[in-house]
Amino acid sequence: MDWLLKATTPAEKILVMFVAILLFAGVMAFILYVSEKLPRWIPAVGFLLPAVIMLAFGLLWPGLRTIFDSFRDAAGRKSVGVDNYVTVLTNPDFQIILLNTLAWVVAVPLLSTVFGLLYAVLVDRTRFEKLAKTLIFLPMAISMVGASIIWKFVYQYKPATANQTGFANQILVWLGLPPQQFLLNPPWNTGFLIVIMIWIQTGFAMTILSASIKAIPDEITEAAQIDGAGSLSTFFNITVPSIRPALIVVITTIAMATLKIFDIVRTATGGQFQTSVIANEFYSQKFSQGNNGIAATLAVILFVLVIPIVIYNVRQMRISEGER
Amino acid sequence: MFRKKNRFAVASLGVASLVALAACSNGGATPGEPTAGGTDSASSADCAAYESYGDLSGKTVTVYASIVSPEDQPQIDSYKPFEKCTGATIAYEGSREFEAQLPVKIEAGSPPDIAYIPQPGLLKTLVDRFPDAVKPVAAAADANVDKYYNEAWKGYGTVDGKYYAVPVGANAKSFVWYSPSLMSDGGYEIPTTLDELMALTEKIATEHPDAKPWCAGIESGAATGWPATDWLEDMMLRTVTPEEYDKWVNHEMPFNDPKVVEALDMAGAILKNDKYVNGGYGNVKTIATTAFGDAGLPILDGQCYMHRQASFYQANWPEGTKIAEDGDVFAFYLPGKDADVKPLLGGGEFATAFADRPEVQAFQAYLTSPEWSNEKAKASPAGWLSANKELDPANLKSPIDQLAFKLLSDEKTVFRFDGSDLMPGAVGSGSFWKGMTDWIALDKSSKDVLDTIEASWPKS
């Protein structure tokens, strides 16, 4: 087949041209004359098959292979039983990673949703609504790596005697406080990384929640006001229950994105100073330390952690669809 | 009618993909244009040294390494005489994710013909994981290495008695950068023993409270911590015998042996003393967040007096900085315990073949030849050298490179390869880096850090 792919002489090139013309004629003939006479299930299979094949080879097979690898040694040669899982769950270094991931998954969805909801309610039907929403939404448009670099500059440390280049430390200096190394001291450094993710995700939460607040019928809110409900009472008894499906979708979507967080940690600290999370540790175990067993174990743990959220999300979607 | 229109749309899509197919097959046909070599007498004379490689017209050798544009240009230029004289094409590809991508490429069955491996430890892993993919060095290159290199360099490319990788670049790490004018203003002498170095450190610290004697930085993205591993290795070479160092690297001596604790404490006497570091950046902990490339720069502002870093650090000085004994910055050899013993820590890259086609073997042999080392030295800016004995020091661009080459080829020098590069990946590019980072950033004790690294050493 060499002549077909790497044609060099003129004769070969002309041959390739004829093959191309034949192929073209064949495809055209098939589409224009044959395709109409085929039974209906053939096109259906034709459309479904690529998706099924891609899912099988791109998702199912690697998934099974990863689970298999997680029970084998670093080189994937011999079985080590559950040793990898024991290591990951008992080694203090890995425990820190699991705790960090937990902190991320709890803090980011909750705080982004709370901030997004508050913001959506506060700017709703005000004069500056569009501008205010745009400002909050903008971080969504920045890539995670870009956002991390921006915040790395914000957190940058210079000794008290030098001019500060980091915005956060400049504020501290203005307030008469000593500058801090935000990304260096655990456990607070993980918190400062989480701030980056919240900054990005609040815009997403705000957009979805704002749209569903606007979908609450005016009659309900008016009826509540006539019944004497104050704004706090309206918020907790009318707004929140009305947008419950949207709230759940937002929280679970952000939770899933947070579980897989990798870019921010890798860009801002490289997982150093006890800030590593599962996805980052997976990458460094697999690609810089060549430990396939531990890497696969971390991937499986990540997968297991995502499953309940996905199931909950799907069930909630079914319920809310059933309501309509 | 609508259906017919739809089908025409699908048909035109088919045409488009055919065009794409044709474009692809056309693209494959272009390489291998025979290069007309040796048209005039002068260039054919130049090609005399290349005759043994034979005529390789139309053949392509792919090279994969971690050096990316624009630093890769000297690499590409250094292949040109080979391409011109043999007619072969060298396709160079650089990637910042080289270490991660190379195993992926091998696993996928499409390895490069030649890869530049910066760590013998990685070579060991590759040979262990993919015994069929890594090809032993062929006779011509093997003979060249025997002839032109110190035998230790052959050892780094050997795994289980089989020879796999030829040395290409080299560097010397036992250097301390300083500002000649700053030193002479203070009336300080270049130390010739470790004790003198410590005395000088203390003297600078007391006489110049506004500056610090040392500056350091170990931040290097995912590889954060490696400059600190070099500190420990340099101190090891100055406190234990070279044989003990080898035992430590090969894990015949535990990683947390009391002798290692002692060496790490010696490094800590400088690196973990707020009085001595971190000139221009702040306290000890700033070492962890200072990029290794920026770490020595406060020397230029007089905020820091000394910076221990390899010969390749000269590429990090800003443009226009004069690197010379009477210039803006220069480096002295990190002294040993006494002035006669000269242990030298160094590193290097190795070229491994993943194919045994004749053109690949010829190219690998070319990389071991004096011709290539000299071509590469001519094409490279300051900061590159090789350990090839036939390398002409006059081709090296800076006095530091010449000094490093002199130390490397000096019979009295006790050369030892960077230990973290020789250790298994789980330690050498994992727990060792992380441990040293924690040693500084989290102020863990030397013993704790070494215990953690010892526990992470792969079993079996």
From TrEMBL, chain A:
Location, primary (coarse class): membrane
Domain of life, source organism: Bacteria
Record's keyword terms, sorted: Cell membrane, Membrane, Transmembrane, Transmembrane helix, Transport
UniProt domain ABC transmembrane type-1: residue ranges: 98-313
Gene Ontology cellular component list: plasma membrane
Localization annotation: Cell membrane
Membrane-traversing stretches: 14-34, 41-61, 102-123, 135-154, 192-213, 234-257, 293-314
GO BP annotations, alphabetical order: transmembrane transport
Signal peptide from the UniProt entry: none
UniProt membrane topology term: Multi-pass membrane protein
Family: Belongs to the binding-protein-dependent transport system permease family.
Protein name: Sugar ABC transporter permease
Organism listed in the record: Tessaracoccus antarcticus
